[in-house]
Specification:
Elements (H helix, E strand, L loop, with lengths): L7 H7 L2 H12 L11 E5 L2 E4 L4 E4 L2 H4 L8 H11 L12 H11 L6 E7 L2 H16 L3 E5 L8 H6 L3 H4 L9 E4 L4 H7 L4 E7 L1 E2 L5 E2 L2 H14 L2 E5 L13 H4 L6 E4 L10 E6 L18 H16 L2 H17 L6 E7 L2 E6 L4 H9 L2 E2 L1 E2 L4 E4 L7 H15 L4
Parallel strand pairs: 3-15, 5-6, 5-7, 7-10, 10-11
Antiparallel strand pairs: 1-2, 2-3, 4-12, 8-9, 11-12, 13-14, 14-17, 16-17
Helix pairs in contact: 1-2, 4-12, 5-12, 13-15
The protein binds pyridoxal-5'-phosphate (PLP).
Pyridoxal-5'-phosphate binds next to helix 6.
């Protein structure tokens, strides 16, 4: 680090705590994230607070991660207990938390998915999925979808469509083709005998919150089966109750060969996972691995999360409350709204113009939302969002989207 880099004390002398922290983030951070201009320091349930004490209704859930709400007591308790027991344990050693999490996750997976690989993020999960598809089929061709997003590591990035993410880093992996999402005829043409994998989201998230049709997704499964490829379904964003079923693929009767997960899996704690079906070859020892993946602390957080999801039927609650949410959003009388779409608590509001001023205006009124591309406001609230909180979010969005030009 340069000798001239500011220290906390040096910056703090001249500024408020909020400005001090912002200055340090800007001085030391790589500058990869568009700053939202507030410093969040605390969270509880569907709310977060900034350092100045302002409260925000959080319809981002930290990019869909805080699925049970912030600092859910069951997750906090599990992390605290496990942190005092055993934090780290590598994969060659057995561990009680990992073993039990395998069994508990296995019990909620779509049928046919039996073996698991635990890692630390969505990109890592997709990276592993692509490697195992290649290992199994011996083919390096991959079919992905336009507007698909699968992460930022080399393989996952190659599967990601958006050219501005991909092109600065080319050459990436060879053999990838991109077809229009929900275009079954294009899929038929693309799955040739050199293709080892088709990778798809069930609901495209970053690409604008676009649900896949059952016809398209089932065709992907059928074509993979007929032509010797593997179907990788990326449920990093849509999994763990977010779309109103445990996994989004259940609603479209899809049985993937490989299912990737992350985000909401551990109630906010970093974790990724990949589930494999019978068509995936058994790797040899050492063919893939990770230092941190499947650590006891992450597994304890994930077990607590899974237990709350199951015991309170959060997916079912999301299904019921999201219909109220959609109804109220569709009733907002704004000619700026072109479309309201999505599934469960994965909601996109497409505008006729850029969304950034509306996102900033919502934040100024105490509501945090995301974008998905330049013209879509994306809501990924915690799954515990109540009817009153839905009404509050809709009231703020109405105010913002109906304001005079
Ligand atoms: C569908 C999907 N796949 C993969 C990823 C990458 O996950 P991560 O950021 O944990 O690497 C994301 C992240 O937004 C995602 O939405």
């Amino acid at each position: 680090m340069a000798d001239t880099a500011p220290s906390y004390d040096a910056v703090a002398e001249a500024t408020t705590p909020a400005a001090t922290l912002a200055a340090l983030e800007s001085a030391y951070g790589l500058g990869l994230y568009a700053p939202r201009g507030i410093t969040l320091v605390r969270g509880a349930g569907a709310y977060v607070w900034d350092i100045e004490g302002r409260r925000y209704l959080d319809c981002t859930a930290a990019y869909g991660v805080a699925s049970l709400g912030h600092c859910h007591p069951a997750v906090v308790e599990a992390i605290g207990r496990q942190a005092a027991t055993l934090i780290a344990c590598s994969g060659s050693f057995g561990n009680d938390q990992r073993a039990q999490f395998y069994a508990e996750l296995g019990a909620v997976l779509p049928s046919g998915l039996k073996r698991l690989f635990l890692c630390n993020s969505g990109a890592e999960a997709n990276e592993a999925a692509l490697k195992f598809a290649r290992l199994t089929t011996g083919r390096h061709g991959v079919v992905a979808a336009m507007r698909g997003f699968h992460g930022r590591t080399a393989g996952a990035l190659t599967a990601t469509w958006e050219p501005k993410y991909r092109e600065p880093f080319e050459p990436l992996l060879p053999g990838f083709t991109y077809i229009p999402y929900n275009d079954t005829a294009a899929l038929e043409r693309a799955v040739t005998d050199t293709v080892g994998a088709v990778i798809l989201e069930v609901v495209q998230g970053e690409g604008g919150v676009r649900p896949g049709t059952a016809e398209f997704l089932q065709a992907a499964q059928r074509l993979c089966c007929e032509r010797g490829a593997l179907l990788i379904v990326d449920e990093v964003q849509s999994g763990f109750g977010r779309t109103g079923t445990f996994f989004a693929c259940e609603a479209v009767d899809l049985q993937p060969d490989i299912l990737t997960m992350a985000k909401g899996i551990a109630g906010g704690f970093p974790m990724g996972a990949v589930a494999f079906g019978e068509r995936v070859a058994q790797p040899a020892i050492g063919q893939h691995g990770t230092t941190f993946g499947g650590a006891p602390l992450a597994c304890a957080a994930a077990r607590a999360t899974l237990q709350v999801l199951r015991e309170t039927d959060l997916p079912g609650q999301v299904a019921r409350r999201s219909s109220i949410f959609f109804e109220q959003l569709r009733a907002i009388p704004s000619d700026r709204i072109r479309d309201v779409r999505g599934r469960g608590f994965m909601i996109g509001i497409e505008l006729t113009e850029p969304v950034s001023p509306y996102i900033a205006a919502a934040q100024a009124r105490g509501l945090l939302v995301l974008n998905a591309g330049p013209q879509v406001i994306r809501l990924l609230p915690p799954l515990i969002l109540s009817e009153d909180e839905i009404a509050d979010a809709v009231a703020i969005l109405t105010e913002v989207l109906c304001a005079g030009r």
